[in-house]
Design goal:
A hairpin with an 8-residue loop joins strand 2 (89-96) and strand 3. Helix content is 49%, strand content 14%. The protein has 196 residues and is of the alpha+beta class.
Length: 196
């Protein structure tokens, strides 16, 4: 009986996520319009190079089809999921996977003056909660352990991104691989924020 319920639940979840995946571009557009978070834009409507939105776009482009965090969160969802509050940041974006079998997550926050450590602590607490989650798919444990909260000036990022490599069998090799995958985002962040 329990197996039947589990199979039905998984089938329903798969059906819903396939519908969400089909509507991704509209959902993303609607979430971006409804976040209430202002992006840094110049008069031509072009996103400024140091905005969290510009950083997200560059990260998404770098990973290509290995960017599995395809669902953008609204401002309210960001605050609820990651323990942030409006008074902590100027701007924030967050992407999570549309399918529960994946854990890929990207969060970019531009902290308000004097709030960078609070943002860092909130994202670190979120990371610790994930690592201690006992209900995780076994294939995601090492990827979660390799996740990182990364601080650069007044920006804080939660990075858990990249592809999978089924050819690697040793835990140490997999951890190193996932850390290298996260470094792709860190290098982009460094390059974009290091410009004057």
């Amino acid at each position: 009986m329990k197996k039947k319920i589990l199979v039905l639940f998984l089938a329903a979840t798969l059906g819903v996520t396939s519908l969400v995946g089909c509507a991704k571009s509209d959902v993303t557009l609607n979430n971006q319009q409804s976040t209430g978070i202002e992006n840094s834009e110049n008069n031509d409507g072009v996103v400024a190079e140091k905005s969290v939105e510009a950083i997200r776009k560059a990260v998404v482009d770098a990973y290509g089809d290995k960017y599995l965090a395809t669902m953008s969160l609204s401002k309210e969802e960001i605050n609820e999921r990651f323990g942030l509050t409006d008074d902590m940041y100027k701007d924030a974006v967050a992407d999570i996977p549309a399918m529960s079998t994946h854990v890929d997550t990207f969060v970019a926050v531009e902290a308000k003056e004097g709030k960078v450590n609070e943002v860092f602590d909130a994202l670190t607490e979120y990371r610790d909660m994930l690592i201690n989650d006992t209900m995780m798919y076994p294939m995601n444990e090492l990827k979660t352990q390799s996740s990182e909260v990364y601080k650069y000036d007044d920006y804080v990022f939660f990075i858990m991104l990249g592809g999978y490599d089924d050819s690697l069998e040793e835990d140490s090799e997999l951890l190193a691989y996932y850390e290298d995958q996260n470094d792709i985002a860190k290098n982009i962040i460094d390059d974009m924020l290091n410009t004057k």
